[in-house]
User: What shape does this take?
Amino acid sequence: MAKNDTLKTASVLAFERKLDPSDALLYASSWEKREDEQQWQPVAVREKSVRGTISNRLKAKDQDPAKLDAAIENPNLQTVDVATLPHDADTLVARFTLRVLAGAGTPSACNNAEYQAKLEQAVAEYKQAQGFGELAHRYANNLANGRFLWRNRMGAEQVEVSIRQLAKGKATKEWTFDALTLSLRAFEDTAELKELAGVIAQALAGEQHLLLEVVAYVRVGSGQEVFPSQELILDRGRGDKSKTLYHVSNIAGIHSQKLGNAIRTIDTWYPNENDEDLGPIAVEPYGSVTTQGKAYRQPKQKADFYSLLDNWMIKDQVPSKEDQHFVMATLIRGGVFGEAG
Assistant: This one.
C-alpha cells in the first residue's frame, strides 16, 4: 500500500458487531429427559430475605469490642433475588441464538472516503493472506466449551453443548460437545470443531448466512442455585433489594452482552511481561480485564487497538500476524473508533 502523508483517521468511524447473540433463557429439566423440550420448566426469579451478620472490614475506630458487639446486635437484613432449579430437576438448560454476519472490517459509518478505501484494502489483504479461519476456530471453541455459562459451568457434574445451524427455521447441521473435556485456557482442534469453525469463517467472509441455535445442558443437582445475569441498578434507594437478577417474561436470563464477552474471549496475543499463565482474555481495545482491574494492551507499549490500527492505516506499518488477528477481532466486536475532535 502506498503511503499517503495527507491521510488522517476518520473522525466518524463505527463498526457493527458481527457476532450477534440473543439473550439466553434458562430452563430446568432432568438429565435423562434433557432433549425433550416439553419437559422444560422456566427457571423463575424470586425474592428471598436473609439476616446477615457484620462481616465487612472495620475501620480502626470501630474495632473496639463494645462497638463491635453493639454492631452485631443489629442484624444486617437484606432482600435479594435468587434463582434455583426445582427439587425434581437436576439440569439447567440455557438456550440462545447467534447470528454471524458478513462485512467484517467494513465500517457502518465513516466520514473519510480515502480512509475507508485504505481500510477496506487492508481488510481484503488480510482475508486473502490469513482468512477468518483462526478467529472462527477460537469462537467455535468458546461455544463448544460452554464458556458462555460463566459461573453455571463451575462445579457442574456434566455439561453438554448442542449447536444447530438453522436455515428457514429448520436445522441443517448439528454438533454436540462434551464441554468439560474442552479446555478454557487453550483452543482444541477436533474434527467437529473444525467443521463448526469452517461454517463460522464462511459466514464472516460473506459466503453464507449463518444462524446458530446454542443449547447447553448443565447437570448441577436438584434444587441447586443457578446464576442468571445480575442487573446494575444505578439509582438504588434505601430498602431496595441488594441483588436484582435479570429475567425476560419471568424466565431467568443471561444478558446478550455477557454471552458476547465470553464468545470473544480469544485474545492470547497480548503482551505479558510477567509470563503469567492467564489464558485468553476478551477482545477489547485496551485488553481490559475488569475482574483484575488491569489493561493488558497499554498505549505506551503500542499494543492497544488504536495504536495498531493507526500504524497500519496511517503509517503503513503492517502489524504482525497475531496483531492483525487482534485488530480484525476488534472490528468484528464492533464499536465507535473515530478520532476525538
In short: The helical segments are 65-73, 113-129, 133-144, 191-204, 256-263, 305-313, 321-333. The chain has a mean pLDDT of 91. DSSP finds seven helices and 19 strands in the chain. The longest helix spans residues 113-129.
